[in-house]
Amino acid sequence: MGSESRCENCIIRQFNSLRAMSKEELKKVSDSKVVKKVKKGEAIFEEGDKLNGVFCVRDGVSKLSKLSSNGKDQIVKLASKGEVMGQRSVISEESANLSAVAVNDMQLCYIPKEVIVDSLHKNPDFTLEVLRHMANDLREADDVIVNISQKTVKQRIAEAFIYLKTNFGEDKEGYLLLVLSREDIANVVGTATESCIRIISEFKKKGLLKSSGKRLGIIDEKKLRDLAEGF
Amino acid sequence: MGSESRCENCIIRQFNSLRAMSKEELKKVSDSKVVKKVKKGEAIFEEGDKLNGVFCVRDGVSKLSKLSSNGKDQIVKLASKGEVMGQRSVISEESANLSAVAVNDMQLCYIPKEVIVDSLHKNPDFTLEVLRHMANDLREADDVIVNISQKTVKQRIAEAFIYLKTNFGEDKEGYLLLVLSREDIANVVGTATESCIRIISEFKKKGLLKSSGKRLGIIDEKKLRDLAEGF
DNA sequence: AAATATATATGATATTTGTCAGCTTTTCAA
DNA sequence: TTGAAAAGCTGACAAATATCATATATATTT
Questions:
Q1: Across the interface, do B92 and A150 touch by the CB < 8 Å criterion?
Q2: Nearest CA among B92, B63, B95 for reference residue B80
Q3: Residue B22: pLDDT above 80?
Q4: C1' of C5 to CA of B227 (Å)
Q5: Mean pLDDT of A78-105
Q6: Are A73 and A65 in contact (CB under 8 A)?
Q7: How far is CA A132 from CA A109, A124, A129, B128, in A?
Q8: What pLDDT, on the 0 to 100 scale, is given for residue A68?
Q9: What does the buried/exposed string (b/e) look like for A94-125 if buried means 16 or more CB atoms within 10 Å of the residue's CB?
Q10: Residue A144: partners with Cβ closer than 8 Å, 6 or more residues away
Q11: Is A73 helix (H, G, I), strand (E, B) or coil?
Q12: Taking residues A55-76, what's their average pLDDT?
């Protein structure tokens, strides 16, 4: 087994709360973890599932969404390299409130909850680190609430593109690295797919966005930002 | 000083994360805390303030809201007896992302952050308890996101009344104990005040709600629930 | 009690957004 | 490669919601 498959040596850990674990704790995690490969479109877990562990994203992106009573999915968060999914459910000892589906091919480390829960009780540094991450998620969620209820669909779509660029980057040609379908973008923004398509078309016509195949790229970031702010 | 003014004896503590504190920790908290009285409409802290402590609600209700770029307030949470406000900012070492304003006359205990931060580093039981509360807030925030983006204003207002009844109760005459202005209800739901008033009027005409002065009461809870679910 | 301010109410209208239908393009597997 | 399925696109229309104007009721101050 290569040394990079040991959590102690995993660079990704630096980005999440596992960095606050001791050598011994990491050894336990590493010994009990299972590496999983998930293909684009496959589910990692579903709303209502009892999670017996958490998933640490090694590669790829997952959408965390919740089905509303009218049958539409609302994407609440996009989790990428370094993020830990399922923590909330394990901590609350509740079943998952969100579904996780792979947006592209993914590599995950599945860590059984026992070792996590054990550290939560014994290592305050780790617990505090998890708490800090959750505090950050909560602030982001509050921001999303304000945006969805106070901004127009056009503003939110403009904002979504800025978000995709700053969080997932773009290639040398200026296309967003994270490729989402129009439906997924609509589900992030909380609007109908057709409305989303219409506005993206409008942005293309106005020279704010460009597209090539299913890839989308930002041409005029400043104008998009202004739009998102309501100018 | 009456013994009920000592945190060790405070019943309210049973509802929040302070219950996981040791006797000694509570003694420290009690010695450093300051009781504050805030009148209806007064601000406790504002978005952007640096918080040097947290506020434990002893009595009354506070609205936690965020100003959007279009100048409207979005109420993200209503905090009542037992809840601790400002935790998130203290944990993240960031300035407040929300404003807190008293909805009615309030009594608060202000606890300097040092004693909280100290316990967060030393007492994993306490940290875990705070984490559990925050995990719960996060789940609630996710639910709000889905509701706001997928339900109609009418559904959300129906839901808001169910929420107000289950969380704050009603008097013997069947009026909600927590009295909110139509504007506040609109800001909880994320809609224009006029739209909110219109729908409340409609609900009154249909015999779902009743009003007397500024008090509002639920007449037909079942129909309200059905409405909220989209029937 | 009168005067003023604030909250609630309602109509008319404009804007935004969703829905349905049909069409074109792309993707993917047989 | 070719044909089915999925994704993207666009128009027409309907529904939901916001905005503006104005009226009335309620609360607050003088």
A1: no
A2: B63
A3: yes
A4: 36
A5: 96
A6: yes
A7: 21, 12, 5, 12
A8: 85
A9: eebbbbbbbbbebebbbbbbebbeebbeebbb
A10: A76, B145
A11: strand
A12: 92
Q: What share of chain A is helix, strand, coil (3-state, %, to 5)?
A: 50, 25, 30
The whole-angstrom distance between B119's CA and the closest CA on chain A is 9
C-alpha B76/C-alpha B82 separation (Å) is: 18
A166/A168 Cα distance (integer angstroms): 6
**pLDDT at res. B4:** 60
Q: CA angle at residue B111 from B105 to B115, to 5 degrees?
A: 170
DSSP state of A156: H
Which residues does chain A have within 8 Å of residue B25's beta carbon, measured at their own beta carbons? none
Chain A CB contacts of B120 under 8 Å are: 124, 128, 131
**Dist CA A115 CA A94 (whole Å):** 17
Tokens representing B107 are 């009594």
CB contact under 8 A, B148 and A190: yes
Nearest CA-CA partner of B163 in B140, B142, B145, B183: B140
| Tokens (6 digits) for A200 | 């993206």
Q: Which amino acid is at A104?
A: N
Distance from CA of A35 to the nearest CA of B (A): 26
Nearest CB to A97; choose among B92, B137, B139: B139
| Antiparallel, parallel or unpaired: β A106-112 and A73-79 | unpaired
- Give the residues across from B216 on adjacent strands: B211
Residues B165-185 have pLDDT tens digits of 999 999 999 999 999 999 999
d(CA B164, CA B68): 24
Considering only CA atoms, which of A191, A192, A208 is closest in space to residue A200?
A208
